[in-house]
Specification:
The strands form four sheets. A four-stranded antiparallel sheet has the order 1-2-4-3. Strands 6-5-10-11 form a four-stranded parallel sheet. Strand 7 and strand 8 form a beta hairpin. It is α/β, with parallel strands linked by helices. Among the domains are: about 80 residues, Arginyl tRNA synthetase N-terminal domain (Gyrase A, domain 2), CATH 3.30.1360; about 90 residues, no CATH class; about 110 residues, Isoleucyl-tRNA Synthetase, Domain 1, CATH 1.10.730.10. The protein binds arginine. The site of arginine has 8 residues, from strand 10. Monomer.
């Protein structure tokens, strides 16, 4: 078992003191404070419940807290808070425990919990856009964090590989055969041509509709042509994933088509149980929160996006035994997910023991404040966007390291450029819109990935110069205020990860790492490390080690590389 964080031990101690003061069974919240190491605010809340004067109760609690080896002081603050200060010894013990634990105090609270994460979800024969980039990056960070906390994670790339548009595409391909299997860029042209014809030529539109029926009923030639498009698109998506360094492989792709055979059964069951009713020829689920129904089957008999999601949900709960379902999807689809969860709950496919969350995210905007697009109004190709970020990063890295050339420069430019794109995305509150600004995301100072990568590399270089292996923390050495702040920040790593999982908000980890890097900078300014001597030097090197490891692990959970040198 990992040594618990200081906040947890303090919470236990304050709970015991509260019990002594006659208020049992509360778990007081312990927070960092400006006026002491920590502050407990639970007393105030409990006092109301038991009709006691908060300040008097806080005084009783403070008096009941045993000071000594670990707790240096406990005192009443404000209307009924308790300020808590730890001894230097307690802080050094905590530092030693963290340093000895390769998991940095992070337990495995997710062990035994199965989470299915639906993310990335690009559409076949279409360019991936920045919305898919957000889903991919946020999903990847959540997957990594859940796995790090010991959870079982099933990745689901819910590819848009099904639907009426494929009738139109296959028909275009049949009528204008390609000399070879079409490449991704060719597919995009084909898509455009097919759409134009579909809208201008009613006879073609008719043939395209018949083609959809052929596809859905498994006609060999139609399915083969469709398969080719899916394969080519998947090759392209894999290229983007490799470039991004995200944990998605073709094995994680279970597209909408995979649920085709289950759709009639879904509709039948919903109709039989009365969850869905026919309205204007369509099979619909109505709810009490909106007049918009969830359309299970369209009036022409076809199944759409909603039916597929119902089938996927039922399978994820029923066959994959998920405890938690996450859908990392654009906030603009929030009504769809509310309807989906409501329908699935009524159908009995989503029991109360399983949580389902639409992990919604905001829109990526261009400099003009409008959704991010090329000047001609097209989707920006993701691969171009990433190439551009890496090119810009190369300039930044080369300026810092004039000696770096060739493959080594390319490698670092990649780590920095991709890290910058990911960090800029993840550091923004998930549901907020943000402006895609490549110059800002590559700034060496400020809240950027590069800043954190440099902070980490600087620590590695300090350690390389010190030349020592991992030091043993020396007890009995006075702790400088800047060291104190750093120990307290380092100790909050596990809680931060728990917070990310409780809220599905990776920006909390970004903010934590950014603050940690700043606290380290203050420490390094105020406390010489390499020039220090004896046990003081030892303990400062220990702090450097632990900060370097925490930054490295934290960045890796965001999917960001932290090379030793930049
Ligand atoms: N492919 C869809 C799109 O590009 C997103 C799919 C989201 N996932 C889901 N299970 N509905 O908008």
């Amino acid at each position: 078992m990992a040594v618990p964080p200081l906040t947890a031990s303090l919470s236990d101690a304050v709970a015991a003191a509260l019990a002594t003061a006659g208020v049992p069974e509360v778990a007081p919240r312990i927070r960092r404070s400006q006026h002491a190491d920590f502050q407990a605010d639970g007393v105030l809340a409990s006092a109301g419940a038991v009709r006691r004067d908060p300040r008097a109760l806080a005084a009783e609690v403070a008096a009941a807290l045993p000071t000594g080896d670990r707790l240096a002081a406990a005192s009443v603050a404000g209307p009924g808070f308790v300020n808590l200060d730890l001894t230097d010894g307690a802080l050094l013990d905590q530092l030693a425990a963290r340093l000895a634990d390769p998991r940095l105090g992070v337990g495995t609270p997710e062990s035994g919990v199965t989470t299915v994460v639906d993310y990335s979800q690009p559409n076949v024969a279409k360019e991936m856009h920045v919305g898919h980039l957000r889903s991919t990056i946020i999903g990847d960070a959540l997957v990594r964090t859940l796995e790090h906390l010991g959870g079982d994670v099933i990745r689901r790339n819910h590819l848009g590989d099904w639907g009426t548009q494929f009738g139109m595409l296959v028909q275009q391909l049949v009528e204008h055969p390609e000399p070879a299997a079409p490449s991704m860029s060719r597919l995009l042209e084909l898509y455009r041509a097919a759409r134009v014809r579909f809208e201008s030529d009613p006879a073609f539109a008719d043939r395209a509709r018949r083609r959809v029926v052929a596809l859905q009923s498994g006609d060999r030639a139609t399915v083969a042509a469709w398969r080719e498009m899916v394969d080519e698109s998947e090759r392209y998506f894999t290229e983007v994933y490799d470039r991004l360094g995200v944990r998605l492989t073709p094995a994680d792709a279970v597209g909408e088509s995979a649920y085709n055979d289950a759709l009639p059964g879904i509709a039948d069951e919903l109709e039989r149980t009365g969850v869905a009713v026919t309205s204007d020829g369509a099979l619909c689920v109505f709810t009490d929160f909106t007049s918009t129904p969830l359309i299970v089957r369209k009036s022409d008999g076809g199944y759409g996006y909603a039916a597929t999601d119902l089938a996927a949900l039922r399978q994820r709960v029923g066959e994959l035994h998920a405890d938690r379902l996450l859908y990392v999807v654009d906030a603009r689809q929030s009504l769809h997910f509310r309807l989906l969860f409501a329908a699935a709950t009524r159908a009995g496919w989503l029991p109360a023991t399983v949580s389902a969350t639409h992990v919604a995210f905001g829109t990526v905007l261009g400099n003009d404040g409008r959704p991010f697009q090329t000047r001609s109004g097209d989707t920006v190709r993701l691969i171009d966007l990433l190439t551009d970020a890496v090119d810009r990063a190369r300039t930044v890295v080369a300026a810092k390291n004039p000696d770096l050339t060739g493959a080594a420069l390319d490698e670092r430019a990649r780590a920095v450029g991709i890290g910058a794109v990911k960090y800029a995305d993840l550091a923004t509150g998930r549901t907020r819109d943000y402006v895609y600004d490549p110059d800002r995301m590559l700034a060496l100072t400020g809240d950027t990935g590069v800043y954190l990568q440099y902070a980490h590399a600087r620590i590695r270089s300090i350690l390389a110069r010190a030349g020592s292996a991992r030091p043993q923390v020396a007890p009995g050495v006075p702790v400088h205020p800047a060291e104190r702040a750093l120990i307290l920040d380092l100790d909050a790593f596990a809680e931060t990860l728990a917070d990310v999982v409780a809220t599905y908000e990776p920006h909390r980890l970004c903010a934590y790492l950014h603050r940690l890097a700043q606290t380290f900078t203050t420490f390094y300014d105020q406390c010489p490390v390499l020039r220090a001597e004896g046990p003081t030097r030892t303990n400062r090197l220990a702090l450097c080690h632990l900060t370097g490891d925490t930054l490295h692990t934290g960045l890796s959970l965001l999917g960001i590389e932290a090379p030793d040198q930049l």
